[in-house]
Amino acid sequence: MSEELLRQIAEKLGDVVGRLDRMEQKVDQIDNRLERVEQKVDQFEQKMDQMDLSLARVEQKVDRIDTKLDAAFEQVAKNTEHEVAFNDLASKVAEHTTDIRLLKKIVVAS
After folding, report:
1. What radius of gyration, in Å, describes the C-alpha atoms of the chain?
2. CA distance 16 to 7
3. Mean predicted confidence (pLDDT) in 15-30
4. For 79-95, how does the pLDDT look when each residue is reduced to its tens digit (9 = 90+)?
């Protein structure tokens, strides 16, 4: 019976070794998958870093555009003020021209 017992133990050990081999293969597969996932995460992080840089450049451009837009609004406001002054001056010149004509007629008539 001891030989039978040894044979059964050997069979069980063989089964255990087979199961351990299969588990080791599965662990290797999982490890390979995990490595691929880590690579993808690294690629994703690189792309996110690139996007951060791109976003920073866009923000700088928006800031420059905003500054230029503010300057344009200021110039429009100044131009509007000048236009009002020029229109006022033009109307005064027209009035003075009329006054000068009337004065000339008065002087000529006198």
Report:
1. 47
2. 14
3. 95
4. 998 988 888 888 998 89
Residue-averaged pLDDT of the chain = 93
Four-CA torsion 37, 42, 43, 44, nearest 10 degrees: 90
* Predicted structure pTM score: 0.53
3-class secondary structure per residue, the chain: CHHHHHHHHHHHHHHHHHHHHHHHHHHHHHHHHHHHHHHHHHHHHHHHHHHHHHHHHHHHHHHHHHHHHHHHHHHHHHHHHHHHHHHHHHHHHHHHHHHHHHHHHHHHHC
Distance of CA 14 to the CA centre of its chain: 61
Rounded Cα gap, residues 46 and 53, in angstroms: 11
The Cα–Cα gap between 74 and 66 comes to 12
Alpha-carbon distance values, 74 to 67, 77, 78, 86 (Å): 11, 5, 6, 18
